[in-house]
C-alpha cells in the first residue's frame, strides 16, 4: 500500500500502468459452450481475470416449495477459487460472495423472459479462477452468454463494466491494482437496446460531476463489451453450423 | 411464503395515484415518513440508537474490543458492521436463517460508513501491527415497514455519533483501560437516501407496500461536502441512466434535510464533527 | 472480581448497592403492543435490563411435519443483542441461549391453552437489548403479556423473579453485579392463581433452610410482578378503548 | 416422531398403580433402578466411567489439555462439559443434529459439577494469566431408558473421581509434562437426584415410559455437606411449591444413598475427598 | 516420534513390542446384543481398541425422498468419542470420519441383501470409545455382527484386518504405536465364503512383492477374525436359547 | 436424484461388448481417454494446472502461506489438499453441500501425494517449531465425465510440478519474502490409475456411463521407482483378491505411460525431479 503511493498509476500523458488509455478497456475474450454437463456455459478472459460460468435450467425447482407459480426462479452463485486471489481464500462463501451473488442475479434476471418458465429454476454458477479486478462485471457479461448458450430467451444481452477514480482521474475498466489503490469503483450492468441499468454500485468518493461523467463512460464501455459479446455469439454459432451441430 | 403473488391491483393503484404526485399514505413522492432518533438506550454499549422511519424500527449498538489488526493495514483499527433480522420484525424473517438480504444490508450500511470515513480508523491503533481497537457496529431490525437500508444506516450512524470510546493506556506490550471515556474520532455525517422506481416514477423512502410492487430500489449516500460515497441498485428490475441521474438529484436534497435532523436530534455542535 | 470482594454489596443496615432493601424489587415498566408486524408484543424495562418480545401465531407450522395433531407447538427463541452485555457477543446462539430458550418455553407453555390450536405454531421471539441480571425472569414476564396482546387464551399470567444469596443474605431480584459476585441465583416462574411453578432453577450453594426461605421470597416477589403485569394490561386496554381500537 | 401421541391409557395405569405406592416395573415411588459404575474402561482418557441406571447407560471421559485461561479468571483452570447423544441410544436421536435437549443436559451436568466445586480449578493454573489446564468432561449417552440427567451426572462424577492428572513442570514460559501422574484436586461428591411429577405423585428416577407421561421433571443436586448446589425443573408442566419442598426432602435422602454407593464402587477413602 | 526411532518395535527374533509374532492378531472379544434401543448391536474389544456398534433398521427412510425404490439405503456413521485418542478430539466429524463412514458402508453393503428391503433405511452407528489402531477393521467386523443381531439377512459375514510394514517387515493387525511409526498400513475387508474383497486401502510405500505377500497375510488374518465372529454369534444364540429368548 | 435406477440394459451392453475387448466409446479395456495438461493458467497461484481426461476436466491451484506447524512435526511444512465440486460440473452436484464424495476424493488425492512424498515438507520449515510454509493444494472439478480421481490427482500433481515457491528470508522471529521465486522441493512423480470392475472385467479409466453400472472402483498409485504408495477400493460392490492382483499389474503399466506423458507435457528435465 505504501509503495503504491510512490509508484504512479497514470503517467503524465494519461497512460495507465498496463499501457491503456484512460477510457480503454482490457483485451476481452469470450467463449461459449465450454462445458459438457451444463445447459449452457461460457468462459471469459478479461485481462488477467478468468471466469467460468455454467447455467443449469430451466429445470425442476428443488426443493419444490421454492418454485414460483408465475415465473422461473433465478439463482446466481458467485464463488472464487481458493487460489484466485493473492492470499489463499477459504472455500466457505464470504459475505462478499453472498452479496455479489445477489446483485449478479438481480443484474441478469431483468434480461430473462422468466415468465415463460413458471415453476422452474434457472441456476447460474460462476467460478472465478483468477480475480484481477471487475470480476462482477466479467461474471455478468459472461453469464449473459451462458444463458444464450442454454437457449434461454432474453430481452437483450447484459453488458457490464466498471469505472474507477485513480489519482483523481476517471478510468474505464479498473484492474485489481487500480482498484486497490484507487479512490472509487463504480460497476454498472446495462442492456443497451433497452437503455436499462440492471446493476449499479459505487464505493469511494466522487463529486456529482464525476458521477455524471462516470455514467457516460460506463454506457460507452458497456456498448464495447456488448459488441464483443455479440461477436462471440456469432462466432460460436458459425462454428456450430460449420460443424453441423444444432444451434 | 416464496410464492409472493405480485399484487397487480395495488401496483396499478400506486402508479395511478403517483400521476398526481401522491402516495397511498398521503405523502408526496419526495416525502420521508416521520423520522425519530433516540440515543443512549443501551448504556452498556459504547453508543446506541433506536431509529424509526415511519413504522420501520432499527436499533444499533457500538461495542469496542481490543484485537488484532488486519495484516495489510497494521496501524488502523477495524470496523465491523453486522445486521441481524430479529424474527419478530416481519412474518417473513425466520430464526437463525443466514440471509442474503441481511448480508446485503450489512454491506451497504458498512460501505456508507466506511467509504465516507465516518470513523477515522487511523486513530484507533493501540500498538502498531499488534493491537488495535475493533469497533463492532451491529444493527438489529425490529420492525420492517419498508426502507430498511435508510433506517439501518441512520441507526448505525446515530449510534456512532452518540458514542464515546474507552481511553486506553499502552505500556510496552500491554493495553490497560483507564476507565475514562474519550470522544470518538468522527470525521463526517454521511446520509443514505433510498428511492423506489415504480413504473416511471421515483418514490423517496418506499413503504412496505411500495416495496412489494417496485421495479427496483436505488440507494445513494452523500458526505457532508456533497460528494457521493456509496450507491446500490437493488432488486430484479431495471432503471434508466436518466432516472439514475434524477434519483441522485432528489437524494442529494433529501440527504441535507436528514443530516440537519440528525444534527438537531443529537445536539451535535457543528464544530464537533470534522475537527477531531 | 477481586475488587468486588472489597466493595460491600450490602450495607450494615441491609441496604443494597443500588439502594434497595433485601426484599425489594427493581422498578419494572411493562408495555404491551409495541411492535407492528407481530400478533402480539411487549417491552419491559426491569432496572437496566431491557427486553423486547414478539409473538407470532397461532399460525401454520412450517415445515408442516413439525405440527402436532393435538395442540399448538410452542417455541421460544431467547437471543441477546451483541451489544447487550459487557463484552461484545457473537450473534451465533450460545449454549446458554439455547438452554434458556428451552426453559422459557417450558415456563410459558403450561399457561397457554395449547389444546385450542392443534396443528398450529406459536413462536415467541425474545430480544435482549440490555442484560443487567434476571433476563430470563424479565423475558418470561414480558412474554406473558405479549401472549395476552396476541389474544391467545391463557390459564393465568406467568410472573417470574429470582432470589440470590449475596454476602450470606438472601436478596430478591438480583441484578447483574449481585449475580456475578453472589453465591447463588435461583429464578422461579409462577402462576399465582394456579399455585403452579413453571420454572425453577438454582446455581450456587444454599442450605436447606435458605432454600425454604427462598421459595417464600420468590412467591412474594412473583406476586408483586404479577400485579405490575395486570396493571400494564389494564392500562393497555384502557388506552386502546379510549383510542377506539379493538382490544 | 414429532407427533408423540400422549399415551393417555398408560398414564392412567401409572397413576392408578402409584396410589398404592407401586410402579410398572415393581419399584416403590422412591426406589432407584439398579446402579452400576465401572471405571477405567478408556485407558487413554485421564479418567473414564461407564454408568448404568437400569437400562440407561452413559460413558464419560476426562481429557486434559494445556490451554488459555478465560480473561476474567486468569489464574484458574477451565472445565468444559459436553454431552453427545449417540444415535443408537434411541430411535429419536438423529445423527449430527444439534439438540436443545443435549445442550440442557450438558449444562445441568456442568452446573452440578461446577457449583459444588467438585474440581478445585484454582489448582489447575500452570502459568498465571497464560497457561492453564483445560479439563474436558464429555458424556456420551449410549442407551436411553429414562433419567438421562442422573445417569450422565453420575458418569461425569465417577470419571472425575477416578481420574488422575498429568504432572506438569513449568519453566519460564514453557510447560513440560513429566510423564508422571498426580491426583486430581477433588473437593466434593455432589449427587443429582431427579424426580418426575405424574398426577400428584413424585416418582424418583423416572423410567422411559414414566417420562413419556410425566407432567414435569425436577432435579436437585446436593453436596456432601447437605447443601443444595443445583436445581432444574424441566418439561412443559408445572409443580406446586409444596411439591417442590417434598421433592427436595426425598432427593436429599436419595443423594446420601447414592453417594455411599459411589464411594463404595470407587473404593474412595473417606479422607481422599475434601482434603486435597 | 524421535524416540520411536530408537526404541525397536520388532525384536531380533521377530517379536513385536506387545509380545506378538509378526503374523499374530491381538486378543479379540466380540459380543452381540449389548444395547437396548437398537434393532441389533455389538461390542468389540480388539486389543485396546473398544467400539460399540448399533444398527437401526430396516426402517422408514427419513426424509422420505432419500428412499431408494429398489433396495434399502445403507448408511454408516463412524464417530470417535472425544476421549478415545491421545489428544482431546472435537465432537464435530472430521474429514477422516466422513471418509471412513463411506468406506465402511461400502465394505458392508455388498454383504447385505439390500434388495429384500426396498424403500427402507438401514443405519449403522459406530462409536469408537478407545482407538488403538485398526478401528475401521474392528468397526466393520463388529458391524457385521450387529447386522446379524438385527436379523438382517446377509450373504456372508465381513471380516476385516490390516497389515502394516514396520521396520521393513510385514506385520498383521497393526496397533496404534506400530501404525504411527510404521511405513505403511493396508486394511482389507473380506467375505471368505464369497472370496470377495469389500474394502481395500493402502497408505505408505510397499514394493510389488510386499503387496502380494500382504494380500495373502490379509486373507489369513480375515479368516481368523471370521472364526471369532462365528464363535461370538454361536455363543450369543446359545445363551439366548438357554435364556428362553427368541433368536 | 437419489433414485438412480440402475441402467440394467446399458450394463448388459457394456459387459457384452467387453467380451470382445471393446468399450462403448471404441476404447480397449486398458486405454485411457485423451489426456491434456495445461499449466500456468492461474498466474496468481504458485502453480496451477487444467487437466482433462476425455471430457472430465479439473483445475488445480497451489498457494503458499506462512503458518504454524503441527505440534507433533514442528520442523515440517504442512500440505493441505482440498477438493471442491463446482455445481456446473454435474447436474448431481449441489451448491454448498458438503459431500462425502468430495471428502473421499480430497483424501485419496492427498494420500497419493503425501505418501509418495512428492513434496519434501522437511524443506518447508521457516522457524523450527514456530513458522512453516502451509501449502494449499486445491482441486476444482469443472466437468464430470467419469474418473474424477485420476483427473484430480493428475491436476494436483501437475500444478505441483509446475509450481515455484516464494523465497523467504528469516531474521530472528520474523519471516520476510524476498520477492524472488525458488524451485519446489519435489522428490517424486506419483501416478494414480483407476479401474472399474464391471462383471468380471476390469476397465481402465472408466467413463461416466461405465461408472453408473460398475461393481466397484479400484485405484492404485505408483511412485517413479515402481513402489505402490496408495490404494483405494470404492463403491458398494466387491472385487476378488485375484482381480486385485490383476488390477495392480495393469495399473503399473499404465502409470508409466502417464508419467511419461506428464514429463513431456511439463517439459521436465529428467534430472529435475528426485535431486532437489
Please characterize this protein's 3D structure.
The complex is a heterohexamer, with three copies of chain A (247 residues) and three copies of chain B (276 residues). Chain A is an alpha+beta fold. Chain A has helices at residues 2-6, 95-108, 135-149, 176-181, 208-242, and strands at 28-32, 40-46, 49-60, 73-80, 120-130, 159-166, 169-172, 184-191, 196-206. Chain A is globular. The model of chain A is unreliable at 1-5 (pLDDT under 50). Chain B is α+β, with helices and mostly antiparallel strands and 276 residues long. Classes of the chains: A alpha+beta (247), B alpha+beta (276). The interface between A and B is large, with 42 and 39 residues. Strand 9 of chain E pairs antiparallel with strand 12 of chain F, so a sheet runs across the interface.
Short note summarizing the structure:
With 247 residues, chain A is α+β, with helices and mostly antiparallel strands. Chain A is 30% helix and 30% strand.
Mean pLDDT of chain A: 93
CATH C-level class of chain A? Alpha Beta
The H/E string of chain B reads HEEEEHEEHEEEEHEEH
Termini gap of chain B: 49 Å
Number of domains of chain A: 1
Q: How many extended strands of chain B?
A: 12
Helix proportion of chain B: 25-40%
Beta content of chain A comes to: 25-35%
Oligomer: heterohexamer
Largest sheet of chain A: 5 strands, mixed
Structural class of chain B, please? alpha+beta
Uncertain runs of chain B: 270-276
CATH topology of chain A: Ribosomal Protein S5, domain 2
The end-to-end span of chain A amounts to 49 Å
What's the number of helices of chain A? Answer: 5
The number of distinct helices of chain B, counting runs of at least 4 residues, comes to 5
Text of the CATH class of chain B: Alpha Beta
Structural class of chain A: alpha+beta
Compressed to H and E, one letter per element, the order of chain A equals HEEEEHEHEEHEEH
